[in-house]
Each structure stands twice: as structure tokens, then as C-alpha cells.
Amino acid sequence: MAEVWKGAPVAQALTERLILRAQALAARGVIPTLAILRVGERPEDLSYERGALKRCEKVGIAVKQFNLPADAAQEALMETIRRINDDPAIHGCLMFRPLPGHMDEKAACAALAPAKDVDGITAGSLAAVFAGAGEGYPPCTAQACMEILAYYGCDLTGKRVTVVGRSLVVGRPLAMLLLHKNATVTLCHTRTADLAAECRRGEVLVAAAGKARVIGADHLSPGQLVLDVGINVDETGNLVGDVDFAAADAVAGAVTPVPGGVGAVTTSVLAAHVIDAAEKTLS
Ligand SMILES: Nc1nc(=O)c2c([nH]1)NC[C@@H]1CN(c3ccc(C(=O)N[C@@H](CCC(=O)O)C(=O)O)cc3)C=[N+]21
Fold it and tell me: What is this model's ipTM?
């Protein structure tokens, strides 16, 4: 039986410190405020939104929601981003992705004011993650993986870490964060030859493929630390990860559950970035 690494204690440890920082801001007349920008009603987005709203309420962060219909025009989206940029009461913006196919996601990401980019979607933030220096926050989910490993005492130096998925939201920035902690990183994707063997080789395995239960018994090895980043919604509306939990539970050393794992920490990291961005407006 693997250890189950839940997100809740990690999130709670982060949240306790954030509450104090939010109170200190409030005492100086600043209510930390997050804008959530959602286009359409994808179930993964709604799940993240529920988690973020709950977390922000706990911490003392106000939320302004901006919702557009799934068939909204690009110009309506750009106008919404401009309103968020121009509102001095807003410190950070979370825009759910991917955007609907007819929209220009690159243009939307580029339009966000860098100071309000709490989810690492602008080129400047990604460059900072890549260089390990400069202004900007890493994408919340990538950082959440690092927070979990740190909380549960995993020293990454010299460890073989296999990351499955090369998205700009998780896989690629996470590979950089792991590298900064001296891990030996293998970044896998849909064209990787013998994915199962690459996965088995990792002492740490991070599943961020975005496909329900693609990581099964074949991909796992004894004692492995398995982080399941997948948030997939199945036919019945349930959240399922990228990892076959029963298979991981049988062989791995530790595994994060879905729900209640990485996602729960993602919202705390988001809250941390908003508090940080709000503090920066004072200094
Ligand atoms: N720009 C962008 N960045 C993302 O990181 C991103 C995104 N867009 N689009 C949608 C997906 C999905 N996602 C989730 C994160 C946390 C929970 C979460 O907190 N889940 C709770 C359950 C909350 C509930 O359903 O009530 C849990 O796992 O315990 C869910 C989903 C991030 N994504």
C-alpha cells in the first residue's frame, strides 16, 4: 500500500501564513483581489473555480468573476482583459485555459498586465521560470507539485524525475522548477517511444498528460513517488486523474489522490501569488 499524499495538509500549511499576510494588507487598507476570467463552462474550469473561491474566502481574498459565453468573440475577451488590467483594485488574474478553439490564446495571454499574471501565462513570467531569475510567478499547478514534494520531505537533488506532458501550464515549467532543485528530468509526451519504460525509470513520476488513467501498472515501479496532476472529468461527471490510482496504490511508495491532491494545493499557490502581488503594490 502506497502512502497517500493528500493536498489538504500542504494547502493548510500554506494558507495559515497567507491569512496573516491578508490581515496585514487589510490593516493597510488593501483587500487582496483576484479576477477569475472564464470563457464557457468546462467542468475542469468550474472545478478549479469552486476550489479557488473556497480558498480565497478562507485566506481573505476578494474575487471578481468575469464570465463570457463559449462562443464569445475575441474582441470581447480582449476588452475584458483590458478592464482587468485597468482596475487598480485587482491584483491578479486567473484565466482558465485552454480557451475555446476559435480564440487566439497567445494574444489573450500577451495582453494581460505582467504584474497581474499570477498563473504564469505571459512570456515574461515563463522566461523567469526558465531562467530561474526575474519577475513573474510560475504557473500555480507546476509550483503546487514542488510544494507537495517539499512538504513531504522529498529531496530532489540527483533524483530521476519523469514528467509526462509538455504543456506550458504544467510539464514544461515544472521541468524547469525541478531542474532548479537539481533533479535529473526526463520530459515525456505523446511521441515518446516506450513511455512505460521512461515512466518506470523515474524515482519520481509526475503525470500531467491530461488523459484519464493513461498511467497504469506498466508505467509504475516499486517505491516510486507518483504525483497525479490530471484533472479529467469522466462521463458521469466525476473527477479522475491521469493515474490508475489502484495500480499506484499497489506498487508505489506514495501517490497523490484526485481529487484532494495536487488540485487542492494549486488553489493555495494561486492565493499566495495574489497576496504577493497585492503586497508589491505597496512597496
Ligand atoms: N490557466 C489554467 N491553469 C490551470 O491550472 C487550469 C486551467 N487553466 N484550466 C482548468 C484546469 C483544471 N484545474 C484545476 C485545479 C484545481 C482543482 C481543484 O481544486 N480541485 C479540487 C476539487 C474542487 C471541486 O471540484 O469542488 C480538488 O482536487 O480537491 C480543479 C481543477 C486547473 N486547470
Answer: 0.92
pLDDT at 166: 96
Q: What angle do CA 31, 67, 61 make, to 5 degrees?
A: 15
Tell me which of 55, 57, 126, 231 to substitute to probe ligand 1's pocket, judged by most ligand atoms within 8 Å of the beta carbon. Answer: 231
Residue 276 beta carbon below 6 angstroms from any ligand 1 atom: no
Question: Residue 179 is part of which domain span?
Answer: 140-263
Q: How far is the CA of 194 from the centre of ligand 1 (A)?
A: 29
CATH of the domain at 154: 3.40.50.720
- The grid coordinates listed for 12 are 493548510
- The ligand 1 atom at the shortest distance from the C-alpha of residue 51 is 19
pLDDT tens across 75-102, in order? Answer: 999 999 999 999 999 999 999 999 999 9
From atom 14 of ligand 1, which residue's Cα is the shortest distance away?
Answer: 48
- Give the pLDDT confidence score for residue 234 in this predicted structure: 87
Q: Is the pTM of this model over 0.90?
A: yes
Please state the domain count of the chain.
2
* The pairing of beta strand 232-233 with beta strand 239-240: antiparallel
- Identify whether 259 is preceded by a cis peptide bond (ω within 30 of 0): yes
